[in-house]
Write a structure and sequence with these properties.
The protein is an all-alpha fold. 76% of the residues lie in helices and 1% in strands. The protein has two domains: 73 residues, no CATH class; 216 residues, MetI-like (MetI-like fold, Orthogonal Bundle). It is a multi-pass membrane protein.
Amino acid sequence: MLIFVGKRLVYMVLTMFAISLILFLVMEINGEAVARRVLGPFTSAEQIQAWLEANGYLRPWYVRYVEWLGNVLSGDFGQSIRFRGPVADVLWPRLGNTAILAGVTFAIMVPLALTLGVLAGMREGSKTDRSITVASVITTSIPEFASAVLLTVLFTTWLGWLPGTSAMSDGWNPLELILPVMVLVLYGFGYIARMTRASMAEVMQQLYIRTAILKGLPYRTVIMRHALRNAMIAPFTVIMLQINWLLSGVIVVEVAFAYKGFGSLILEAALNQDVYLLEAATMVAVLVAVSTQVLADVGYTLLNPRIRFK
């Protein structure tokens, strides 16, 4: 097991290294383009040349890459063009805000989806199964921006129960998290529920499950000890993918509710051509993606020890 985990960590490091090299070449190989983004479109050629010399852009690209990589590993991402300050001062608070939003969403969405998926899979073809399947299809078919508008109109305009934005301008307010979390849960739980339902229905047809039932084992014991563990292998993949989506794929929800998170920060950086902020956000997103993939691979072996990656 330790050897397996070690190999996955090596792959993770190699992947991060390869992506960092590609990112650097795409974003900073053209020093003049970087200078124009930093200094502005009306900068003279003399000013650009002076900036390139002062910031070391006249050196070979591989020398600059090694220096850039060292700075990234130490947490120094440079100066933000949009916010006129260190990238780290902007990045980490925004990342923390999205972590709060994602954590609350994850804590609600995953248990709800797994419970509904298991119930549907246990009663394949029943009214319960059909109702859960239809609800899952409907919720996942509605894009986030549409459900955000519908829920805002319902709970803010008509009922007046919840605030329509989540900017936290008056300090931390848990009520302002309710609408964004509702939108994310409604959109995301259906994928997990449907995958769990399909996996559970398949497991319930296996011979060892039927044998356990015919031997007189309590139905709850059959489900909890024999069926559920094997049924969780496929949904586990979808659950781990949801972490990546909740980190950088919530741009629409964060913008819709004016939530100051990681997703809206990526949009601001892209609109303002903030090179250094985009580089930092990309590296963080990739780190989370490869980390969750390693956790998924390890989780497979825990759920089913027969599974081994070579």
